[in-house]
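writing this on my phone so excuse typos. first protein, seq and then structure
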Amino acid sequence: MQIVEWVQYLILGLIQGITEPIPVSSSGHLVLVQYFLGLESKGLTFEVFVNFASLFAVIFIYRKDLLRLISGALKYIQTKSPEHENDFRFWVYLVIATVPAAIAGLLLEDWISTQSGKVSIIAIALLLTGVALFVIRKLKGTKTESQMTLKAVIIVGLAQMVALMPGISRSGATIVAAMGLGWTRELALRFSFFLYIPVSLGSGILALNDVFNDPYFSDKAFGYGIAFVASLFASYFALKIFINIMKSGKLIYFSIYCFVVGFGVLGYLALS
Protein backbone atom coordinates (compact mmCIF):
# COMPACT_ATOMS: atom_id res chain seq x y z
CA MET A 1 0.00 0.00 0.00
CA GLN A 2 1.22 3.49 -0.84
CA ILE A 3 0.45 4.84 2.64
CA VAL A 4 2.67 2.18 4.19
CA GLU A 5 5.51 3.19 1.88
CA TRP A 6 5.03 6.85 2.80
CA VAL A 7 5.28 5.93 6.49
CA GLN A 8 8.54 4.13 5.71
CA TYR A 9 9.88 7.26 4.05
CA LEU A 10 8.81 9.28 7.10
CA ILE A 11 10.60 6.92 9.50
CA LEU A 12 13.78 6.86 7.44
CA GLY A 13 13.73 10.64 7.10
CA LEU A 14 13.36 11.06 10.86
CA ILE A 15 16.16 8.58 11.56
CA GLN A 16 18.46 10.39 9.14
CA GLY A 17 17.58 13.77 10.58
CA ILE A 18 18.00 12.79 14.21
CA THR A 19 21.27 10.90 13.76
CA GLU A 20 23.04 13.09 11.18
CA PRO A 21 24.12 15.92 13.52
CA ILE A 22 24.94 13.72 16.51
CA PRO A 23 28.03 11.45 16.65
CA VAL A 24 26.34 8.09 16.09
CA SER A 25 26.44 7.63 12.25
CA SER A 26 23.27 8.42 10.33
CA SER A 27 24.07 6.04 7.45
CA GLY A 28 24.72 3.24 9.92
CA HIS A 29 21.41 3.83 11.66
CA LEU A 30 19.52 3.80 8.37
CA VAL A 31 20.96 0.36 7.65
CA LEU A 32 20.13 -0.90 11.15
CA VAL A 33 16.55 0.39 10.99
CA GLN A 34 16.06 -1.18 7.58
CA TYR A 35 17.52 -4.48 8.83
CA PHE A 36 15.63 -4.80 12.11
CA LEU A 37 12.32 -3.28 11.03
CA GLY A 38 12.34 -4.99 7.64
CA LEU A 39 12.07 -1.72 5.76
CA GLU A 40 13.00 -1.69 2.11
CA SER A 41 16.37 -0.10 1.36
CA LYS A 42 15.97 3.12 -0.62
CA GLY A 43 19.56 3.11 -1.82
CA LEU A 44 22.54 5.42 -1.59
CA THR A 45 20.84 8.09 -3.70
CA PHE A 46 18.03 8.34 -1.16
CA GLU A 47 20.52 8.67 1.69
CA VAL A 48 22.30 11.51 -0.06
CA PHE A 49 18.96 13.17 -0.82
CA VAL A 50 17.79 13.23 2.82
CA ASN A 51 21.32 14.17 3.84
CA PHE A 52 20.79 17.30 1.73
CA ALA A 53 17.91 18.21 4.04
CA SER A 54 20.23 17.97 7.03
CA LEU A 55 22.58 20.33 5.20
CA PHE A 56 19.88 23.01 5.03
CA ALA A 57 19.30 22.66 8.77
CA VAL A 58 23.02 23.07 9.51
CA ILE A 59 23.28 26.13 7.27
CA PHE A 60 20.25 27.72 8.93
CA ILE A 61 21.56 27.19 12.46
CA TYR A 62 25.04 28.49 11.61
CA ARG A 63 23.84 31.19 9.21
CA LYS A 64 25.16 34.09 11.33
CA ASP A 65 28.62 32.54 11.66
CA LEU A 66 28.63 31.75 7.94
CA LEU A 67 27.74 35.29 6.96
CA ARG A 68 30.32 36.71 9.37
CA LEU A 69 33.08 34.48 8.02
CA ILE A 70 32.13 35.15 4.40
CA SER A 71 32.06 38.89 5.01
CA GLY A 72 35.37 38.79 6.87
CA ALA A 73 37.07 36.70 4.19
CA LEU A 74 35.91 39.04 1.43
CA LYS A 75 37.14 42.06 3.38
CA TYR A 76 40.52 40.39 3.84
CA ILE A 77 40.78 39.68 0.10
CA GLN A 78 39.98 43.31 -0.65
CA THR A 79 42.04 45.03 2.05
CA LYS A 80 44.48 42.42 3.43
CA SER A 81 43.47 43.70 6.85
CA PRO A 82 44.97 41.58 9.70
CA GLU A 83 41.65 42.01 11.50
CA HIS A 84 39.97 39.62 9.04
CA GLU A 85 42.87 37.26 8.35
CA ASN A 86 41.48 34.53 10.62
CA ASP A 87 38.19 34.55 8.70
CA PHE A 88 40.01 34.07 5.41
CA ARG A 89 42.25 31.34 6.84
CA PHE A 90 39.20 29.53 8.20
CA TRP A 91 37.84 29.07 4.66
CA VAL A 92 41.24 28.00 3.34
CA TYR A 93 41.47 25.42 6.09
CA LEU A 94 37.97 24.14 5.30
CA VAL A 95 38.98 23.55 1.69
CA ILE A 96 42.17 21.76 2.73
CA ALA A 97 40.35 19.58 5.27
CA THR A 98 37.76 18.59 2.65
CA VAL A 99 40.33 17.21 0.20
CA PRO A 100 41.16 13.83 1.89
CA ALA A 101 37.53 12.71 2.11
CA ALA A 102 36.75 13.97 -1.40
CA ILE A 103 39.62 12.00 -2.95
CA ALA A 104 38.98 8.87 -0.89
CA GLY A 105 35.28 9.05 -1.66
CA LEU A 106 35.94 9.01 -5.40
CA LEU A 107 38.54 6.23 -5.19
CA LEU A 108 36.63 4.01 -2.75
CA GLU A 109 33.08 4.62 -3.95
CA ASP A 110 32.51 1.00 -5.02
CA TRP A 111 34.02 -0.44 -1.84
CA ILE A 112 31.95 1.86 0.34
CA SER A 113 28.78 0.83 -1.49
CA THR A 114 29.49 -2.88 -0.98
CA GLN A 115 30.37 -2.53 2.70
CA SER A 116 27.70 -0.04 3.74
CA GLY A 117 24.96 -2.66 4.17
CA LYS A 118 26.88 -5.01 6.47
CA VAL A 119 25.28 -4.84 9.91
CA SER A 120 28.23 -6.43 11.74
CA ILE A 121 30.66 -3.81 10.38
CA ILE A 122 28.34 -1.02 11.48
CA ALA A 123 28.10 -2.48 14.99
CA ILE A 124 31.89 -2.67 15.31
CA ALA A 125 32.21 0.88 13.96
CA LEU A 126 29.74 2.10 16.59
CA LEU A 127 31.84 0.48 19.32
CA LEU A 128 34.95 2.22 17.99
CA THR A 129 33.02 5.50 17.98
CA GLY A 130 31.95 4.86 21.56
CA VAL A 131 35.56 4.31 22.64
CA ALA A 132 36.74 7.49 20.89
CA LEU A 133 33.98 9.58 22.47
CA PHE A 134 34.74 8.10 25.89
CA VAL A 135 38.43 9.01 25.60
CA ILE A 136 37.78 12.69 24.83
CA ARG A 137 34.63 13.09 26.92
CA LYS A 138 36.21 15.41 29.51
CA LEU A 139 38.44 17.44 27.23
CA LYS A 140 37.72 21.15 27.03
CA GLY A 141 40.56 22.50 24.93
CA THR A 142 41.82 26.06 24.80
CA LYS A 143 42.83 26.60 21.16
CA THR A 144 40.69 29.07 19.24
CA GLU A 145 40.48 30.01 15.54
CA SER A 146 43.65 32.09 15.69
CA GLN A 147 45.59 29.04 16.93
CA MET A 148 44.51 26.62 14.21
CA THR A 149 47.42 25.15 12.25
CA LEU A 150 47.70 23.50 8.85
CA LYS A 151 48.86 20.25 10.45
CA ALA A 152 45.87 20.14 12.79
CA VAL A 153 43.44 20.89 9.97
CA ILE A 154 44.86 18.06 7.85
CA ILE A 155 44.44 15.67 10.79
CA VAL A 156 40.77 16.67 11.12
CA GLY A 157 40.38 16.19 7.36
CA LEU A 158 41.88 12.70 7.62
CA ALA A 159 39.42 11.95 10.44
CA GLN A 160 36.58 12.86 8.10
CA MET A 161 38.10 10.51 5.53
CA VAL A 162 38.06 7.68 8.09
CA ALA A 163 34.35 8.40 8.59
CA LEU A 164 33.73 7.11 5.05
CA MET A 165 33.89 3.68 6.67
CA PRO A 166 30.30 2.49 7.20
CA GLY A 167 29.12 3.10 10.75
CA ILE A 168 31.75 5.70 11.64
CA SER A 169 30.12 9.03 12.45
CA ARG A 170 31.45 11.94 10.40
CA SER A 171 30.69 14.50 13.08
CA GLY A 172 32.00 12.16 15.75
CA ALA A 173 35.30 11.50 13.97
CA THR A 174 36.01 15.16 13.23
CA ILE A 175 34.99 16.39 16.68
CA VAL A 176 37.09 13.70 18.39
CA ALA A 177 40.11 14.67 16.27
CA ALA A 178 39.61 18.39 16.86
CA MET A 179 39.18 18.06 20.61
CA GLY A 180 42.12 15.68 20.77
CA LEU A 181 44.18 18.45 19.20
CA GLY A 182 43.20 20.82 22.00
CA TRP A 183 40.54 22.87 20.19
CA THR A 184 37.73 24.35 22.25
CA ARG A 185 34.44 22.49 22.14
CA GLU A 186 32.81 25.38 20.32
CA LEU A 187 35.49 25.50 17.62
CA ALA A 188 35.53 21.71 17.21
CA LEU A 189 31.77 21.65 16.76
CA ARG A 190 31.64 24.64 14.41
CA PHE A 191 34.51 23.47 12.20
CA SER A 192 33.03 19.97 12.03
CA PHE A 193 29.70 21.21 10.73
CA PHE A 194 31.22 23.79 8.42
CA LEU A 195 33.31 20.94 7.04
CA TYR A 196 30.07 19.03 6.50
CA ILE A 197 28.75 21.72 4.15
CA PRO A 198 31.05 21.22 1.10
CA VAL A 199 30.99 17.42 1.44
CA SER A 200 27.21 17.25 1.69
CA LEU A 201 26.69 19.90 -0.98
CA GLY A 202 28.96 18.09 -3.45
CA SER A 203 27.44 14.65 -2.89
CA GLY A 204 23.94 16.11 -2.94
CA ILE A 205 24.42 17.83 -6.28
CA LEU A 206 25.86 14.64 -7.79
CA ALA A 207 22.97 12.57 -6.44
CA LEU A 208 20.31 14.93 -7.78
CA ASN A 209 21.30 13.98 -11.31
CA ASP A 210 20.66 10.30 -10.54
CA VAL A 211 17.39 11.12 -8.81
CA PHE A 212 15.90 13.15 -11.66
CA ASN A 213 17.10 10.66 -14.28
CA ASP A 214 15.42 7.81 -12.44
CA PRO A 215 12.48 6.66 -14.63
CA TYR A 216 10.51 5.89 -11.46
CA PHE A 217 11.22 9.23 -9.81
CA SER A 218 7.69 10.51 -10.34
CA ASP A 219 6.39 7.56 -8.33
CA LYS A 220 8.91 8.23 -5.54
CA ALA A 221 8.71 12.03 -5.53
CA PHE A 222 6.09 12.34 -2.78
CA GLY A 223 7.87 9.84 -0.57
CA TYR A 224 11.17 11.63 -1.11
CA GLY A 225 9.44 14.88 -0.19
CA ILE A 226 8.12 13.39 3.06
CA ALA A 227 11.57 12.10 3.98
CA PHE A 228 13.20 15.41 3.07
CA VAL A 229 10.89 17.49 5.28
CA ALA A 230 11.15 14.98 8.15
CA SER A 231 14.94 15.01 7.92
CA LEU A 232 15.06 18.80 7.74
CA PHE A 233 13.12 19.41 10.96
CA ALA A 234 14.63 16.45 12.83
CA SER A 235 18.16 17.63 11.94
CA TYR A 236 17.40 21.14 13.16
CA PHE A 237 16.22 20.05 16.60
CA ALA A 238 18.87 17.31 16.94
CA LEU A 239 21.68 19.76 16.20
CA LYS A 240 20.27 22.30 18.66
CA ILE A 241 20.25 19.63 21.37
CA PHE A 242 23.73 18.45 20.40
CA ILE A 243 25.13 21.97 20.69
CA ASN A 244 23.80 22.21 24.25
CA ILE A 245 25.20 18.77 25.12
CA MET A 246 28.61 19.77 23.77
CA LYS A 247 28.58 22.95 25.85
CA SER A 248 27.82 20.96 28.99
CA GLY A 249 30.50 18.37 28.20
CA LYS A 250 28.14 15.38 28.24
CA LEU A 251 29.56 13.40 25.30
CA ILE A 252 29.49 10.37 27.59
CA TYR A 253 25.80 10.03 26.70
CA PHE A 254 26.65 9.29 23.08
CA SER A 255 29.50 6.99 24.08
CA ILE A 256 27.16 4.89 26.19
CA TYR A 257 24.58 4.85 23.41
CA CYS A 258 27.15 3.60 20.87
CA PHE A 259 28.22 0.82 23.28
CA VAL A 260 24.63 -0.27 23.93
CA VAL A 261 23.68 -0.37 20.25
CA GLY A 262 26.98 -1.87 19.09
CA PHE A 263 27.03 -4.70 21.64
CA GLY A 264 23.30 -5.19 21.26
CA VAL A 265 23.56 -5.71 17.50
CA LEU A 266 26.56 -8.04 17.81
CA GLY A 267 24.75 -10.01 20.50
CA TYR A 268 21.67 -10.35 18.33
CA LEU A 269 23.75 -11.49 15.35
CA ALA A 270 25.57 -14.07 17.48
CA LEU A 271 22.32 -15.55 18.79
CA SER A 272 20.41 -15.51 15.50
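second protein below, same order as before
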Amino acid sequence: MAEMTPYQEDIRQLYARGLNLDALQGHSLLVAGATGLVGACVVDIVMADPHRNLQVFAAGRNRRRAEERFAAYADDPRFSFVEMDVTQPVMDEKPYDYIIDAASNASPNFFKQQPVEVIKANIDGVAHLLDYGRQHGLRKMVYVSSGEIYGQGDGHAFTETSSGYVDCATPRACYPSSKRAAETLCIAYATEYATPVTIARLCHTYGPGFTESDNRVFAQFFRNVLRGEDIVLKSRGEQYRSWLYVVDSAHALLHLLLHGESAQAYNVADATGNITIRQLAEQVAAWAKRKVVFDIPATADQGNTTPVTRATFDTSKIEHTGWKPLFDISTGLSHSLETLKSQ
Protein backbone atom coordinates (compact mmCIF):
# COMPACT_ATOMS: atom_id res chain seq x y z
CA MET A 1 0.00 0.00 0.00
CA ALA A 2 1.39 3.40 -1.00
CA GLU A 3 2.45 5.75 1.77
CA MET A 4 -0.04 8.55 2.42
CA THR A 5 0.87 12.02 1.19
CA PRO A 6 0.73 14.97 3.61
CA TYR A 7 -2.44 16.10 1.78
CA GLN A 8 -4.10 12.72 2.43
CA GLU A 9 -2.95 12.79 6.06
CA ASP A 10 -4.52 16.24 6.45
CA ILE A 11 -7.84 14.93 5.15
CA ARG A 12 -7.65 12.09 7.65
CA GLN A 13 -6.99 14.67 10.36
CA LEU A 14 -10.34 16.33 9.63
CA TYR A 15 -12.13 13.23 10.87
CA ALA A 16 -9.77 12.83 13.82
CA ARG A 17 -10.62 16.42 14.81
CA GLY A 18 -14.37 15.97 14.65
CA LEU A 19 -15.65 16.10 11.06
CA ASN A 20 -18.93 14.17 11.02
CA LEU A 21 -20.85 13.54 7.79
CA ASP A 22 -23.43 11.17 9.31
CA ALA A 23 -26.30 13.41 8.15
CA LEU A 24 -25.33 12.70 4.53
CA GLN A 25 -25.30 8.92 4.91
CA GLY A 26 -27.81 7.04 2.78
CA HIS A 27 -28.03 9.94 0.34
CA SER A 28 -26.24 11.12 -2.80
CA LEU A 29 -23.89 14.05 -3.39
CA LEU A 30 -23.17 15.67 -6.75
CA VAL A 31 -19.94 17.69 -6.91
CA ALA A 32 -19.99 19.88 -10.02
CA GLY A 33 -16.56 21.01 -11.17
CA ALA A 34 -15.13 17.94 -9.47
CA THR A 35 -11.78 17.97 -11.29
CA GLY A 36 -10.94 21.50 -10.15
CA LEU A 37 -8.80 22.29 -7.12
CA VAL A 38 -11.63 22.66 -4.59
CA GLY A 39 -14.16 20.25 -6.09
CA ALA A 40 -11.62 17.41 -6.20
CA CYS A 41 -10.73 17.99 -2.57
CA VAL A 42 -14.40 17.78 -1.58
CA VAL A 43 -14.55 14.39 -3.34
CA ASP A 44 -11.37 13.24 -1.58
CA ILE A 45 -12.72 14.23 1.84
CA VAL A 46 -16.05 12.48 1.38
CA MET A 47 -14.42 9.36 -0.03
CA ALA A 48 -12.12 9.23 3.02
CA ASP A 49 -15.04 9.09 5.47
CA PRO A 50 -14.44 5.91 7.51
CA HIS A 51 -18.22 5.48 7.94
CA ARG A 52 -19.19 6.37 4.37
CA ASN A 53 -22.56 5.20 3.11
CA LEU A 54 -22.95 7.97 0.56
CA GLN A 55 -23.14 7.84 -3.22
CA VAL A 56 -20.67 10.35 -4.66
CA PHE A 57 -21.09 11.68 -8.20
CA ALA A 58 -18.10 13.66 -9.47
CA ALA A 59 -19.20 15.80 -12.40
CA GLY A 60 -16.98 17.47 -14.98
CA ARG A 61 -16.41 17.98 -18.69
CA ASN A 62 -13.08 16.18 -19.04
CA ARG A 63 -13.41 12.41 -18.63
CA ARG A 64 -9.68 11.77 -19.13
CA ARG A 65 -8.73 14.21 -16.39
CA ALA A 66 -11.34 12.71 -14.08
CA GLU A 67 -10.12 9.17 -14.67
CA GLU A 68 -6.59 10.24 -13.79
CA ARG A 69 -7.55 12.36 -10.81
CA PHE A 70 -9.93 9.81 -9.29
CA ALA A 71 -8.14 6.59 -10.29
CA ALA A 72 -8.08 5.50 -6.65
CA TYR A 73 -11.89 5.31 -6.62
CA ALA A 74 -12.38 3.59 -9.99
CA ASP A 75 -13.52 0.30 -8.44
CA ASP A 76 -15.54 1.81 -5.60
CA PRO A 77 -19.27 1.14 -6.16
CA ARG A 78 -20.17 4.33 -4.30
CA PHE A 79 -18.22 6.57 -6.67
CA SER A 80 -19.25 7.59 -10.19
CA PHE A 81 -17.99 10.11 -12.71
CA VAL A 82 -20.70 12.06 -14.53
CA GLU A 83 -19.77 13.85 -17.75
CA MET A 84 -21.54 17.17 -17.35
CA ASP A 85 -21.30 20.70 -18.73
CA VAL A 86 -23.28 22.93 -16.37
CA THR A 87 -23.78 25.53 -19.09
CA GLN A 88 -26.29 23.04 -20.53
CA PRO A 89 -29.50 21.83 -18.82
CA VAL A 90 -29.00 18.77 -16.60
CA MET A 91 -30.67 15.90 -18.44
CA ASP A 92 -29.76 13.24 -15.87
CA GLU A 93 -32.53 11.55 -13.91
CA LYS A 94 -30.35 10.46 -10.99
CA PRO A 95 -31.68 11.72 -7.64
CA TYR A 96 -28.91 14.03 -6.41
CA ASP A 97 -29.92 14.84 -2.83
CA TYR A 98 -27.09 17.30 -2.20
CA ILE A 99 -25.10 19.45 -4.63
CA ILE A 100 -21.87 21.41 -4.27
CA ASP A 101 -21.42 23.66 -7.29
CA ALA A 102 -17.72 24.33 -7.79
CA ALA A 103 -17.97 24.46 -11.59
CA SER A 104 -16.24 27.73 -12.43
CA ASN A 105 -12.86 28.60 -13.89
CA ALA A 106 -10.93 30.65 -11.34
CA SER A 107 -7.71 30.87 -13.34
CA PRO A 108 -7.00 34.38 -14.73
CA ASN A 109 -5.96 33.11 -18.17
CA PHE A 110 -9.57 32.03 -18.75
CA PHE A 111 -10.83 35.51 -17.85
CA LYS A 112 -8.86 36.87 -20.79
CA GLN A 113 -9.32 34.00 -23.26
CA GLN A 114 -12.85 32.74 -22.51
CA PRO A 115 -14.84 35.40 -20.62
CA VAL A 116 -18.14 34.27 -22.20
CA GLU A 117 -17.66 30.71 -20.98
CA VAL A 118 -16.72 31.96 -17.50
CA ILE A 119 -19.97 33.93 -17.28
CA LYS A 120 -22.09 31.05 -18.57
CA ALA A 121 -20.55 28.56 -16.14
CA ASN A 122 -21.50 30.79 -13.23
CA ILE A 123 -24.95 32.06 -14.20
CA ASP A 124 -26.29 29.24 -16.41
CA GLY A 125 -24.63 26.66 -14.19
CA VAL A 126 -26.47 27.83 -11.10
CA ALA A 127 -29.80 28.02 -12.94
CA HIS A 128 -29.47 24.54 -14.44
CA LEU A 129 -28.45 22.89 -11.17
CA LEU A 130 -31.17 24.62 -9.15
CA ASP A 131 -33.80 23.84 -11.77
CA TYR A 132 -32.75 20.20 -11.59
CA GLY A 133 -32.86 20.35 -7.81
CA ARG A 134 -36.37 21.78 -7.76
CA GLN A 135 -37.57 18.92 -9.94
CA HIS A 136 -35.83 16.16 -7.97
CA GLY A 137 -36.30 16.98 -4.29
CA LEU A 138 -32.99 18.72 -3.61
CA ARG A 139 -32.16 18.75 0.09
CA LYS A 140 -29.41 21.39 -0.09
CA MET A 141 -26.98 23.06 -2.47
CA VAL A 142 -23.85 25.05 -1.72
CA TYR A 143 -22.76 27.50 -4.40
CA VAL A 144 -19.02 28.17 -4.43
CA SER A 145 -18.64 31.90 -4.95
CA SER A 146 -15.61 34.11 -4.46
CA GLY A 147 -14.38 37.03 -2.42
CA GLU A 148 -13.85 38.77 -5.75
CA ILE A 149 -17.52 39.76 -5.63
CA TYR A 150 -16.51 42.42 -3.10
CA GLY A 151 -14.54 44.37 -5.69
CA GLN A 152 -12.28 47.20 -4.58
CA GLY A 153 -12.76 47.71 -0.85
CA ASP A 154 -11.78 50.46 1.56
CA GLY A 155 -8.97 48.60 3.31
CA HIS A 156 -11.13 46.99 5.98
CA ALA A 157 -11.85 43.27 6.17
CA PHE A 158 -14.87 42.35 4.03
CA THR A 159 -18.02 41.32 5.86
CA GLU A 160 -20.85 39.56 4.06
CA THR A 161 -22.60 42.91 3.56
CA SER A 162 -19.60 44.68 1.99
CA SER A 163 -19.86 45.89 -1.60
CA GLY A 164 -16.98 47.53 -3.46
CA TYR A 165 -16.47 48.83 -6.97
CA VAL A 166 -16.12 46.52 -9.99
CA ASP A 167 -15.62 48.02 -13.45
CA CYS A 168 -18.15 45.85 -15.26
CA ALA A 169 -17.18 47.13 -18.75
CA THR A 170 -14.00 45.06 -18.92
CA PRO A 171 -13.40 41.42 -19.91
CA ARG A 172 -11.78 40.81 -16.49
CA ALA A 173 -15.13 41.58 -14.86
CA CYS A 174 -16.52 38.35 -16.29
CA TYR A 175 -15.59 36.61 -13.06
CA PRO A 176 -16.68 38.96 -10.22
CA SER A 177 -19.75 40.22 -12.09
CA SER A 178 -21.04 36.75 -12.96
CA LYS A 179 -20.34 35.53 -9.43
CA ARG A 180 -22.41 38.45 -8.12
CA ALA A 181 -25.24 37.64 -10.52
CA ALA A 182 -25.08 33.94 -9.65
CA GLU A 183 -25.36 34.75 -5.96
CA THR A 184 -28.42 36.89 -6.61
CA LEU A 185 -29.88 34.02 -8.63
CA CYS A 186 -29.36 31.69 -5.66
CA ILE A 187 -31.19 34.10 -3.36
CA ALA A 188 -33.97 34.47 -5.94
CA TYR A 189 -34.51 30.69 -6.11
CA ALA A 190 -34.48 30.48 -2.31
CA THR A 191 -37.01 33.31 -2.05
CA GLU A 192 -39.38 32.44 -4.90
CA TYR A 193 -39.21 28.64 -4.86
CA ALA A 194 -37.91 27.91 -1.32
CA THR A 195 -34.95 26.10 -2.89
CA PRO A 196 -32.39 25.40 -0.12
CA VAL A 197 -29.10 26.97 -1.22
CA THR A 198 -26.20 28.47 0.71
CA ILE A 199 -23.37 30.62 -0.69
CA ALA A 200 -19.70 30.15 0.22
CA ARG A 201 -17.41 33.07 -0.62
CA LEU A 202 -13.94 31.58 -0.79
CA CYS A 203 -10.79 33.61 -0.40
CA HIS A 204 -7.70 32.70 -2.47
CA THR A 205 -7.35 28.94 -2.14
CA TYR A 206 -4.16 26.97 -2.77
CA GLY A 207 -3.24 23.31 -2.69
CA PRO A 208 -1.64 20.45 -4.61
CA GLY A 209 -4.55 19.53 -6.89
CA PHE A 210 -4.46 22.36 -9.45
CA THR A 211 -4.79 21.55 -13.15
CA GLU A 212 -2.16 21.94 -15.85
CA SER A 213 -3.91 25.04 -17.22
CA ASP A 214 -4.11 26.85 -13.86
CA ASN A 215 -2.02 30.03 -13.93
CA ARG A 216 -2.93 31.45 -10.55
CA VAL A 217 0.13 32.81 -8.79
CA PHE A 218 0.42 30.02 -6.23
CA ALA A 219 0.39 27.40 -9.02
CA GLN A 220 3.07 29.28 -10.92
CA PHE A 221 5.22 29.58 -7.78
CA PHE A 222 4.82 25.87 -7.00
CA ARG A 223 5.83 24.90 -10.53
CA ASN A 224 8.86 27.18 -10.41
CA VAL A 225 10.42 25.77 -7.26
CA LEU A 226 9.57 22.14 -8.06
CA ARG A 227 11.51 22.59 -11.31
CA GLY A 228 14.43 23.93 -9.30
CA GLU A 229 13.88 27.52 -10.47
CA ASP A 230 13.84 30.83 -8.63
CA ILE A 231 10.52 32.68 -8.51
CA VAL A 232 10.47 35.70 -10.82
CA LEU A 233 8.00 38.42 -9.86
CA LYS A 234 6.80 40.81 -12.57
CA SER A 235 5.55 43.30 -9.98
CA ARG A 236 6.46 44.34 -6.45
CA GLY A 237 3.96 41.77 -5.20
CA GLU A 238 2.32 44.19 -2.78
CA GLN A 239 -1.25 42.95 -3.22
CA TYR A 240 -2.50 41.80 0.19
CA ARG A 241 -4.69 38.69 0.23
CA SER A 242 -6.34 36.08 2.43
CA TRP A 243 -5.00 32.61 1.58
CA LEU A 244 -6.54 29.28 2.62
CA TYR A 245 -5.36 25.69 2.25
CA VAL A 246 -7.67 23.68 -0.01
CA VAL A 247 -8.39 21.07 2.68
CA ASP A 248 -9.80 23.84 4.89
CA SER A 249 -11.76 25.33 1.96
CA ALA A 250 -13.38 22.00 1.05
CA HIS A 251 -14.06 21.26 4.70
CA ALA A 252 -15.91 24.59 4.93
CA LEU A 253 -18.12 23.69 1.94
CA LEU A 254 -19.15 20.40 3.56
CA HIS A 255 -19.73 22.20 6.86
CA LEU A 256 -22.01 24.74 5.15
CA LEU A 257 -23.84 21.92 3.36
CA LEU A 258 -24.77 20.62 6.80
CA HIS A 259 -24.94 23.75 8.93
CA GLY A 260 -25.23 26.82 6.67
CA GLU A 261 -28.54 28.69 6.51
CA SER A 262 -30.35 28.80 3.20
CA ALA A 263 -30.30 32.16 1.37
CA GLN A 264 -27.21 33.21 3.34
CA ALA A 265 -23.64 33.90 2.24
CA TYR A 266 -20.57 33.06 4.33
CA ASN A 267 -16.97 34.20 4.01
CA VAL A 268 -14.48 31.32 4.00
CA ALA A 269 -10.96 32.42 4.92
CA ASP A 270 -8.23 32.33 7.55
CA ALA A 271 -7.24 35.60 9.20
CA THR A 272 -3.79 34.18 9.97
CA GLY A 273 -3.25 33.57 6.24
CA ASN A 274 -3.28 37.25 5.26
CA ILE A 275 -0.03 37.98 3.40
CA THR A 276 1.19 39.79 0.28
CA ILE A 277 1.98 38.08 -3.01
CA ARG A 278 5.64 38.77 -2.32
CA GLN A 279 5.44 37.09 1.10
CA LEU A 280 3.73 34.10 -0.50
CA ALA A 281 6.53 33.86 -3.06
CA GLU A 282 9.16 34.13 -0.32
CA GLN A 283 7.59 31.34 1.74
CA VAL A 284 7.36 29.02 -1.26
CA ALA A 285 10.93 29.84 -2.35
CA ALA A 286 12.27 29.31 1.18
CA TRP A 287 10.77 25.81 1.28
CA ALA A 288 12.81 24.89 -1.82
CA LYS A 289 15.87 26.95 -0.85
CA ARG A 290 15.38 29.14 -3.91
CA LYS A 291 15.23 32.93 -4.29
CA VAL A 292 12.64 35.53 -5.28
CA VAL A 293 13.90 37.85 -8.00
CA PHE A 294 12.22 40.81 -9.64
CA ASP A 295 11.85 41.51 -13.34
CA ILE A 296 9.36 44.35 -13.47
CA PRO A 297 8.57 45.58 -17.00
CA ALA A 298 8.22 49.29 -17.63
CA THR A 299 4.57 48.82 -18.63
CA ALA A 300 2.77 45.80 -17.21
CA ASP A 301 -0.33 44.39 -18.89
CA GLN A 302 -3.02 44.23 -16.23
CA GLY A 303 -5.72 42.94 -18.55
CA ASN A 304 -6.42 39.71 -16.68
CA THR A 305 -5.15 40.76 -13.26
CA THR A 306 -7.51 41.96 -10.57
CA PRO A 307 -7.06 45.64 -9.69
CA VAL A 308 -7.95 44.91 -6.05
CA THR A 309 -4.91 45.68 -3.88
CA ARG A 310 -6.25 44.44 -0.54
CA ALA A 311 -8.71 41.60 0.03
CA THR A 312 -9.13 40.23 3.55
CA PHE A 313 -12.21 38.70 5.13
CA ASP A 314 -14.20 38.87 8.34
CA THR A 315 -15.03 35.22 9.14
CA SER A 316 -17.06 35.68 12.32
CA LYS A 317 -20.28 34.56 10.59
CA ILE A 318 -19.03 31.11 9.57
CA GLU A 319 -17.13 30.73 12.83
CA HIS A 320 -20.44 31.11 14.69
CA THR A 321 -21.63 27.96 12.89
CA GLY A 322 -18.71 26.00 14.35
CA TRP A 323 -16.19 26.00 11.48
CA LYS A 324 -12.61 27.15 11.76
CA PRO A 325 -9.48 26.48 9.67
CA LEU A 326 -7.25 23.71 10.99
CA PHE A 327 -4.05 24.35 9.01
CA ASP A 328 -2.04 27.57 9.05
CA ILE A 329 -0.46 28.90 5.88
CA SER A 330 3.03 27.60 6.67
CA THR A 331 1.67 24.09 7.17
CA GLY A 332 -0.62 24.27 4.13
CA LEU A 333 2.14 25.45 1.81
CA SER A 334 4.69 22.89 2.98
CA HIS A 335 2.17 20.03 2.83
CA SER A 336 1.12 21.08 -0.67
CA LEU A 337 4.70 21.20 -1.91
CA GLU A 338 5.68 17.93 -0.19
CA THR A 339 2.67 16.22 -1.79
CA LEU A 340 3.49 17.55 -5.24
CA LYS A 341 7.14 16.54 -4.84
CA SER A 342 6.13 13.00 -3.87
CA GLN A 343 4.00 12.71 -6.99
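The CA atoms of residues 124 and 241 lie 29 Å apart. thats all i got for now
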